[in-house]
Design brief:
The complex is a heterodimer of chains A (about 280) and B (about 170). Chain A is of the alpha+beta class. Chain A folds into two domains: about 1-30; about 105-270, Rod shape-determining protein MreC, domain 1 (Thrombin, subunit H). In chain A, a hairpin with a 7-residue loop joins β1 (about 105-115) and β2. The longest helix of chain A has about 50 residues, at about 35-80. Chain A has helices at about 1-10, 10-30, 35-80, 265-279, and strands at about 105-115, 120-125, 140, 145-150, 155-160, 170-175, 180-185, 190-195, 210, 225, 230, 240-245, 255-260. Chain B is an all-alpha fold and about 170 residues long. In chain B, about 75% of the residues lie in helices and about 0% in strands. Chain B has helices at about 1-25, 40-45, 50-70, 75-90, 105-110, 110-135, 140-170. In chain B, α1 packs parallel to α3 (about 50-70) and α6 (about 110-135) runs antiparallel to α7 (about 140-170). The model of chain B has no long low-confidence stretch (mean pLDDT about 85). Classes of the chains: A alpha+beta (about 280), B mainly alpha (about 170). Chains A and B meet through α2 of A and α3 and α4 of B.
Chain lengths: ~280, ~170
């Protein structure tokens, strides 16, 4: 003990120097922004890259679910907007833009009656003329085409489902823009048929079919389904393409009724032109 | 004795203020920064005990650090300077044995002694300070050149200050 004390006293200058010097160095290292910044920055580059790539992947995997949630939220918001209230809502939202004229108006409605098992299926909506729904309007959901309004009363609308003998919707294969017609053969509610696609066109399973937008009723690029199979009947020049509907007709709830604001103009133009041609 | 203590305390604060408020604001050619505050360590009496010398050096360096935002940098250099001070004095030449009140100033030790002492001390301090600051040896010669030029500047300042105070004393 005495020896240690003697040592400390003898070398106190040296020891105090070491003490202060190491204290300084500790302070220095703790506050050396340059060195610390270099180390932290290198770390951030690595971890940041890692995190962003992980989130890229997980984001992609979550897209479907996210879309669903957004669609649900959309309908809920539309529901809250007063559009959904049956009795009082007669006003509509109008946009008066000279550059982008609104062509389609969306009216949210609720399915209150629906069948899928018959040859000709119809859907009843809880809104009618009072809410601006009328004959020959498209009915869609966020996942795809549902049908066409065939009749409307004051407060209700009668919709011809795609699951109907009368259904003839102009469809388009997104990959090669080939136009065809969507029909339903009355068998399975999950599958429709695309016809009138020439047999020389190359198609593949999984290709998406959307509306062409040529019909005055449906806006373009509304999802119809994805190709499940395809074949050419003997002696025919056109494919028969069974495809899976993107809409589950058995679980319809909220739908959008689409009003084409230029429909009358388009139809009038077509009629007058045809009349001129016939003369 | 108390007069010496009072002088040193006053010098401590005045030099820090001079360093922080004036000299750190001036940058000569972008990188020359004279560190005149070390004059305090230089002028501490010969008899200052080792622990006090180091503690005062640390306090001085830390005070400058507080103002410049470089925690520990000046403290490390100043403590090192305090540590080598007795050795430098032994190297340059001890004070006369008989005179107890002699201070390591230019007026009392002579110009030749003082300039050798101050130059050695300044160079050591600037060397340590700059190498801690740069923290690598890749730019060795560049750093050495900076050390030498800065040392010359600091030494000039120290001599000017010494001259001013000496003449002041003589006038009185």
């Amino acid at each position: 003990m005495r020896n240690i004390l003697a040592f400390i006293i003898r070398y106190n200058f040296m020891l105090i120097f070491i003490l202060f010097e190491s204290l300084s160095v500790v302070l220095l290292v703790n506050s050396m922004y340059y060195q610390r910044a270099v180390i932290q920055n290198a770390g951030n580059i690595v971890t940041g890259k890692f995190y962003s790539s992980v989130s890229n992947i997980s984001e992609y995997l979550k897209l479907r679910r996210t879309n669903e949630l957004l669609a649900i939220e959309n309908s809920l918001l539309r529901q809250m907007k007063g559009m959904s209230f049956l009795k009082t809502d007669t006003n509509s939202f109008w946009v008066n833009d000279t550059l982008y004229r609104q062509q389609y108006k969306y009216i949210v409605a609720r399915v209150i009656n629906n069948t899928v098992g018959k040859r000709n299926n119809f859907i009843m909506l809880n809104k009618g003329r009072r809410n601006g729904i009328d004959k020959d309007m498209a009915v869609i959901t966020s996942s795809g085409v549902v049908g066409t309004v065939v009749n409307a009363s004051e407060d209700f609308a009668w919709v011809m489902s795609v699951l109907n003998k009368q259904t003839k919707i102009s469809g388009r294969i997104t990959k090669n823009n080939q136009l065809g017609t969507v029909v339903w053969n009355g068998m399975d509610q999950r599958y429709g048929t695309l016809i009138d696609i020439p047999a020389h066109v190359k198609i593949a399973k999984g290709d998406a079919i959307v509306t062409s937008g040529f019909s005055y009723i449906f806006p373009a690029n509304i999802m119809l389904g994805t190709i499940q199979d395809f074949r050419v009947e003997q002696g025919e020049h056109f494919y028969v393409i069974p495809f899976k509907f993107s809409v589950d007709f058995n679980s319809l709830d909220y739908v959008y009724v689409v009003k084409n604001l230029f429909k009358k103009e388009q139809e009038t133009l077509e009629k007058t032109t045809e009349a001129q041609g016939n003369e | 004795m108390s007069k010496v203590v009072a002088h040193n305390i006053a010098r401590f604060f005045l030099l820090i203020l001079l360093q922080v408020l004036v000299l750190n604001k001036i940058s000569f050619y972008g990188f020359l920064n004279p560190y005149v505050y070390i004059l305090f360590i230089l002028l501490l009496p010969f008899e200052t005990p080792g622990w006090l010398l180091l503690t005062l050096s640390f306090g001085l360096g830390l005070s400058v650090d507080l103002f410049t935002g470089t925690m520990g940098l000046h403290a490390a250099a100043a403590v090192f300077l305090g540590f080598v001070k007795p050795g430098v004095i032994r190297l340059v030449g001890e004070k006369p044995e008989y005179d107890l009140t002699t201070q390591p100033t230019m007026s009392e030790m002579g110009f030749k002694w003082f300039i050798a002492y101050a130059a050695t001390m300044t160079f050591i301090h600037h060397l340590v300070l700059n190498f801690i600051d740069v923290f690598n040896f890749r730019e060795f010669w560049q750093t050495i050149i900076r050390v030498i030029i800065s040392s010359v500047f600091t030494l000039l300042f120290i001599l000017v200050i010494q001259y001013i105070f000496t003449s002041h004393k003589e006038k009185r």
